[in-house]
Write a structure and sequence with these properties.
This protein is mainly α. It has three helices and no strands. It has helices at about 5-35, 40-45, 50-70. The longest helix has about 35 residues, at about 5-35.
């Protein structure tokens, strides 16, 4: 894959990670607000999990990105 495509994909994933983090934070805040009013339905309790799963995948990609760039450039591990 050419370097320009990797940069575009990396930028897209970074932006996605930021926006999903905002959505995750909003669901957690909403969860606490609903819990303060009583027992929430299960869908409210589990609503932060899908954004959290996306954050896990994009975060792992962003974590590994500098190491793979160093490896591709021949800098070693």
């Amino acid at each position: 894959m050419p370097a320009t495509n990797r940069i575009v994909i990396g930028t897209w994933i970074r932006q996605t990670h930021r926006w999903i983090a905002i959505a995750f934070t909003a669901t957690v805040i909403a969860n606490f607000i609903v819990r303060a009013k009583g027992a929430p339905p299960p869908w409210v309790t589990y609503s932060p999990l899908p954004p959290l799963a996306v954050l896990l995948l994009t975060g792992l990609y962003l974590f590994v990105l500098p190491y793979t760039a160093k490896w591709r450039s021949g800098g070693g591990a």
